[in-house]
Amino acid sequence: MSRLIVYYAHPGQRFSRANRAMKKAAQGVDDITLVDLYHEYPRHDIDVDREQQRLIDHDVILFQFPLFWYSTPSILKEWQDLVLQHGFAYGHEGNHLAGKTMMLAITAGGSDEAYTQKGYQHYPLRTFLVPLEQTARLCKMSFTAPYVLYSALTAEEESEIARHTDGYVKLLTAIRDGQYDFSAAEDREIVTVDDLPILQGA
Description:
With 202 residues, this protein is an alpha/beta fold. It has one domain: Rossmann fold (3-Layer(aba) Sandwich). Strands 1, 2, 3, 4, 5 and 6 form a six-stranded parallel beta sheet that branches. The longest helix is centred in the C-terminal third of the chain and has 20 residues. The model has no long low-confidence stretch (mean pLDDT 96).
């Protein structure tokens, strides 16, 4: 069993289709912690002590968000700036997150072809996530392949988004139950609903 916390960040979630469906599905997964950052901190007044204790209390920290301008929504950056303090998350005696795992669940408006050298984004999606990956490493955490939905803006709700959301539930459940194969995920750039590395028999 793994203690899993999901941090959800979407500033325009009432207009969202994919992330809103994913969040709703995640709310139905027992024995995980789900934090809606924009709902909990509408003025970005992050409770640092509370958030640091949440991190201490969990093994896997998963951030769910839409990719905004090749980065996270603003509240996640504010959360990082305030919560991941020197002496807590990194630096001298900053070992509270050592051995934990960071994972991302991301939606991207562009297609998978867009995130190639010849595509209009010019780089693989994972390239834009390097700051988060390095943040995990600085905090002595492992960083595993993100769960991704490409073309989220045009995805059909009753087919593509529904499949992706079902896969998200399987992902969260597998992590919670210790059945997600993090070792296999380490060798991948991303994971999708079609190739979730869940251990056999899960």
